[in-house]
Known about the structure:
- The complex is a heterodimer of chains A (580) and B (187).
- In chain A, a hairpin with a 2-residue loop joins strand 17 (511-512) and strand 18 (515-516).
- Chain A is an alpha+beta fold.
- In chain A, helix 2 packs antiparallel against helix 3, helix 3 (76-90) packs antiparallel against helix 5 and helix 14 crosses helix 16 (323-343).
- Chain A has two domains: 50-103 and 116-277 and 402-436, no CATH class; 295-380 and 475-552, Orthogonal Bundle (Serum Albumin, Chain A, Domain 1), CATH 1.10.246.130.
- The radius of gyration of chain A is 24 Å and the shape is globular.
- Chain B is globular, with a radius of gyration of 16 Å.
- In chain B, helix 6 (157-165) links the parallel strand 5 and strand 6 (169-172).
- Chain B is α/β, with parallel strands linked by helices.
- Chain B has a single domain (26-184), classed as Rossmann fold (3-Layer(aba) Sandwich), CATH 3.40.50.
- At the A-B interface, helix 8 and helix 9 of A face helix 2 of B.
Amino acid sequence: MKDTKNRPLEPNPLILTGLIVYFAFVLACRTGRLESHPPLNRHQPYNYVGQKGMVVAAHPLAAEAGLTTLKKGGNAVDAAVATAFALNAAEPFASGIGGGGFMVIYLAKKKILTAIDFRERAPAEAHPKMFIQNGKTNETWRLTHGLAVAVPGALAGWALALRKYGTKSLSEVIQSGIRIAEEGFTVSKTFSKINKDEYEKLIHMAGESCCYLNQGFPYEPGDTFRNPELAGTFRLLASGGIEEFYQGLLAEKIVEAVKEHGGIITLEDLASYEPQENTPLKGVYKDFTIYSPGLPASGGLHIIQLLNILENWPVKEWKHNSPEYIHHLSEAFRFIFADRAHYLGDPDSVTVPVNSLISKDYGQQIRSRINPKHALKTYPYGEFDERDNAQESTTHLCVLDNEGNIVSLTQTINHFFGSGIIPEKTGFLLNNEMDDFSRAPASPNAPDSKKRPLSSQGPLIVFRGDRPYLALGSPGGTRIFTSLFQIIINSIEYGMNLDEAIEAPRFFSYSVLGKAGDIALEARIPESVVDSLKRLGHTVEVREAYDKYFGGAQGIMILWDKHLIHGGADSRRDGHGAGY
Amino acid sequence: MKTILSLSFISITLMVNPGVAPGNAAGELVKFDQPILITSAGQSAEVQLASVLSKRAGLDVTLNKTATPSDLKQAKTLVLVLGASLKGLGVAGIDAAEEKARVKHLVEAAKNLNIDILCLHLGGEARRGQLTDQIIEEFLPYGKMAIIVKTGNKDGLFTSICAKHGIPLIEVDKTVDALAPFKNAFI
């Protein structure tokens, strides 16, 4: 019999192996070296990890739809359109076939960068004073009325991208959207809150029995949301193509619904809609190059302006979200808002000095006007000798495929739940994009026949040297470009990983008619910083700790040295990633 | 043991049955009279929900999101829908301080006119935050009864205020579940 009492402890090999594997797994997950599930605390920065491909989007079902498309051999464009359809079903209040957007595409083999503009257009009968009633702007007409609806461009834009750069058909990529709409999904807190916030709009515009209410009440977290009417619409598109939307049965339903609510869209408006393909706008910051759609998308333009202004400031010395940092950037935001109001509009209708606005010289001019010790009293727009023409709510997705192709796509129906108008038995919401036009009839962004309203969207792809580094975008109205700018600086200057950069606290400011607006900032920024900003002459509005007012960014970062892809998804909305 | 089980069963039954008109601290049934004026305290969208609940309950109700004391003339009950929304405040064209001042004048006027106040909080957990909590703390004590979606009470804020002021509190799982106790609360 063996003497077990005096024998020294010997580790069980099986247990030891198991422990080693367990700890290695935990370590790998923490360092992002293996794909695993995000933490229960969604605010904790977490990078989705992949090696061949990645999809990030504002809903897990949509991200999965994109990933499935990649795994079935589709490329980034196929996956982006599949994700876009899926978002219409899974996040119907933020985008869909009743809206529009922009995308920037990078094709790795041919080294092509292109942008597709599928922004909605004003109806042919639109004119600068269309929202004026008795000498004043009728706000209802701009938001919850048939006049608020612009001609949707989403389907036309997705179809163009697919036709030119995809490998799959519309009927293939729409299938995930059909399944999500038909089978439904569990309503999240985000969905429920937005549903509650827009309850009045839905009651008045769509009625108590509409599919976006649960027996006349908002959906609660945990409820199941299904949209069989949208599934039916998608099936019609799968069999009949986008012609059903722009010329067929759906076109008739759209016109009827808009007319019933006092609008002016005609069958001819829909039939004549065409998306545009353009060369993206380009800006340079140190050894990084930023590509983003040009006007009427303004996000990229403003981000390039801001990077030019910031370029020679000692941001690292100031430290992230310090009073100096927030003060200087807020002043910079106010100057670009002055330019925005004075110059920006649809470049097909107005001449915009884009090259001057995004020049390094102009960035230096603005930088020299900013006083480090106090907020200024006025913020004038820039004045240029020559005018050259270079030519929110909302959701964002990014896709990277295993050949290195990238799509960064932002799309919207403007306000959550758009105009609240649903064409009969179709399940989709019509936008209220006309509200993105200026209220001033003399503005370069005033409404007019077939004009595209100015957009804050700025889906972008950033290169480091000659290699893609980051795809990024966000919803959030005019906070889109200020938030994306902060994420870029968080990554490039402060060395944060992608999701740290996305989750970090944000702030925003603006100017109107040359006068400063408040600085709005998330409550995670310390009170001592708020006090310092007040001493510098700012008024400050403290918002929630993770406030979707500042957007819901999604991004993909390529870590060439580690042969890894990181996906970052914003916890301010239901952002999610899926990589493989 | 049997006594404990019986008492527990009775307690649980009373707690989960929203159809029972709750008593106040003195054990009397709380009932409200009509017509009703519904207003918001904070301008959140739930004031519209309260209006829908009222219509479904077949009650005599007027909705005025920014009601002032002069609107109390015809009302026998004031329903105060608690919940702040920056968006709602923006649409109403007022700031938080102005909203609190408006509601203060209104509830004081209601008190002086012996108009009972029924408080609702229908937004659940999503409708809690710094400004909403200030509104709850300031105006819930004026209520004669409160009906809330229970996820908005995870930290026990409603429980503690109601207990302190002897205000019967009904908690429901979802907004639609508030219909029965809301209807039953009125004569």
